[in-house]
Design brief:
Blueprint lengths: L13 H24 L1 E4 L4 H15 L4 E6 L3 H17 L2 E7 L2 H13 L6 E3 L2 H4 L6 H7 L5 E3 L4 E4 L4 H26 L7 H18 L8 H27 L5 H19 L6 E2 L7 H4 L1 E2 L2 E2 H19 L1 H11 L1 H6 L4 H27 L1 E2 L7 H11 L11 H20 L4 H26 L7
Parallel strand pairs: 2-3, 2-4, 4-5
Antiparallel strand pairs: 1-6, 7-10, 8-9
Length: 457
């Protein structure tokens, strides 16, 4: 009888887990630390809080009281007030009015309601308006003989960092950086670099604005014309990326020098197209549709970012092109001898990088409704930092798309924490630069951990 065949199993290694998932652990630790430092009183003011307040009023007062709703004159406050009103009316409580405005308008409405012979038993509002002097007990006693209760949604202790609005804000603000980092990841995996992404982002925004203003209908431009302008802008960036690839492959110009030159060319072209102005206004109403669109409250550019990351991950892990990119970054000579079309791969990754910058640029134009020649300044620093922090080696041949996403999120969390702490943008630049240096050192240490016998020259 032959012995049963034993299939060897891979040994679990803490060292390998730290190497593979260290940046995810760093992100979680950062979130935990910032959360602990930002625990504060949260005062909800959204429609859900309005409905909760109305239900509490029904439980406490029944259907007897007359309720006046007082909020500020903002879209968010009006939605909050409408939610209270709808819930109270459904429950059978009489709402004598909704005041959307200032403390003065609130006290005027209250006075007029009382003068008309109608009682006000309860004022429903939120924490901010409840602090107005006109709504304190002594002031209300001056205008009403009967006591008036002021109610608001209950507050609670929670990290302001972990609120839904703040987390979505981090994703939304860093989506353009993360999108550009996708293309930069491919470039750096091939042992290259692209310093032109920030300028290409601005070029895409300006080309979008100029195309709409001068050639695609101006103020009369419809959705199709806006989409065409977006396509033209991204095509221009792709062409610039192709030029970078040709300079690097055909003329053997180092990627740093080639993309540095194109960075300056693209930035200068922005100002030329803008006629020296700080911005080119976009008057087409449809221009904002890309940025303003949302699904279940999630911004369209967050959804676009996620879709692009998933697509890039599939391409890099399940297609020949992805294998070629890693092969070129690992060893160009070996890749060429193995039949990899090295020149085509290198040109392609710079085209992809240019396209990603173009996508970020049209998002910028849709957001600010202008083509800004100064858009994307120093973004190349943040993009490279996101890629390197995410584990992609500047030496080439190593890196993961989702690692780049983690790197972008780490930078976004750090920036958010620094903004909460009131740190200015110049000190943030110092931190980004230091992060790149730390990430490179970690990359070198990681190589020694994985291959302790290899000594770098």
């Amino acid at each position: 009888m032959t012995a049963p065949k034993i299939t060897p199993t891979k040994k679990w290694s803490l060292k390998k887990q730290i190497v593979d998932h260290g940046m995810l652990l760093v992100l979680l630790l950062l979130c935990a630390a910032i959360s602990a430092l930002t625990v504060t009183d949260i005062h909800p003011e959204d429609p859900a809080a309005g409905r909760q307040l109305a239900k509490l009023a029904l439980q406490k007062y029944g259907t007897d009281p007359n309720v006046l709703i007082v909020v500020r004159d903002t879209a968010a406050d009006r939605a909050f007030a409408q939610a209270i009103n709808d819930e109270l009316v459904t429950g059978g409580i009489n709402v004598v009015g909704i005041v959307s405005g200032t403390p003065r308008s609130a006290i005027l409405q209250l006075t007029q309601t009382l003068a008309a012979g109608e009682n006000v038993d309860v004022i429903a509002t939120h924490h901010f308006a409840s602090q107005w002097e006109v709504l304190n007990v002594s002031r209300l006693a001056q205008v009403s003989e009967k006591p008036i209760k002021v109610i608001r949604p209950p507050s609670y202790r929670w990290p302001s960092f972990l609120t839904k609005n703040n987390l979505l804000s981090i994703l939304n603000q860093n989506a353009p950086i993360a999108i550009m980092a996708i293309g930069m990841t491919l470039v750096i995996i091939t042992a290259g670099i692209d310093l032109s992404v920030g300028s290409l982002m601005a070029l895409a925004a300006v080309v979008t604005a100029v195309s709409l203003r001068d050639y695609l209908g101006g103020t009369e431009a419809n959705g199709g014309a806006v989409a065409l302008a977006f396509g033209i802008a991204m095509l221009v960036c792709a062409v610039v990326g192709a030029v970078a690839g040709l300079l690097i492959t055909v003329f053997k110009i180092p990627p740093f020098v080639a993309t540095l030159g194109l960075m300056m060319v693209a930035r200068g072209a922005c100002y030329i197209l803008a006629g020296g102005a700080d911005a080119v206004m976009i008057d087409a109403p449809a221009i904002s549709s890309l940025y303003d669109a949302s699904v279940l409250g999630v911004s369209s550019q967050i959804i676009l970012m996620v879709v692009l990351f998933i697509t890039a991950h599939v391409v890099m892990t399940h297609t020949p092109f992805g294998r070629y990119v890693y092969a070129v970054g690992g060893n160009v000579s070996a890749a060429r001898l193995s039949g990899v079309p090295v020149m085509a791969v290198l040109i392609s990754v710079y085209i992809v990088c240019g396209l990603c910058a173009g996508v970020a640029g049209v998002l910028d134009a849709s957001h600010f409704l202008t083509g800004r020649p100064k858009a994307g300044e120093f973004y190349e620093l943040q993009v490279i930092a996101a890629v390197v922090v995410g584990g992609t080696s500047l030496m080439g041949g190593e890196g993961k798309i989702f690692g780049t996403l983690i790197g972008a999120l780490i930078l976004g969390v750090i920036q958010n924490g620094l903004n909460m702490a009131g740190v200015d943008s110049y000190r943030q630049m110092v931190i980004y630069g230091a992060l790149i240096l730390v990430a490179v050192v970690v990359d070198q240490l990681k190589k020694k951990v994985i291959n302790p016998g290899i000594v770098s020259q």
